[in-house]
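#onboarding

Welcome to the new folks! Below is a worked example of what a typical request in this channel looks like: someone posts a single protein sequence, and someone else replies with the predicted structure as tokens. Don't worry about understanding the tokens yet, we'll cover that in week two.

Example request:
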Amino acid sequence: MASRYPHPLIAREGWPFLAFGIAFSLLVNFFLGFLWALPFWAASLFVLQFFRDPPREIPDDPHAVLSPADGRVVAVEKVRDPYLERDAIKISVFMNVFNVHSNRSPVDGTVKQRWYHAGSFLNAALDKASLENERNALWLQTRSGQDVTCVQIAGLVARRILCYVDLGAALERGQRYGFIRFGSRVDVYLPLDAEPKAALGDKVYATESVLARLKTG
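Example response:
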């Protein structure tokens, strides 16, 4: 199914950084020459690729739990969901600085609660980052009453978690709801009867990749 994605290809979150980088590169290029400006043009190109935010195709399966982020799967395990105080399956996706950092809803659902916790800035690939780093969690309840917890986690370089939805918001699968700047992680906590489809080490893409499938009926 085609994604309805009303956002620019370069995320608005990156426009100030990109504008500053290009302006500074032009100044250096004008006064000192291209060779002196080359590192700054390279930095601007990095910023451009970091803040890209492409539309994606949404899988047709309404019971699929979609990846909320681009990256690599670093955990698929049974754990305790610290937000809903339940046993759950946790699937974690680590984003490096070359991944798209736009975060998108894994399911169709309503935001029942939102939690923000200040914390450390450990390497987001480490499992302890889930409980020690700065993080923002959403409790999403699907139309069939199943609970999914989706957690944005800051990383070693990341210093800003952005979340644009709050209590009562209705999200559709693939809908953009947040952004994390410069390296991070997203954890998804699912009911124990969910069927994982992603495996440790898999490379996944926000909206297009299926992490798991919720039980039907």
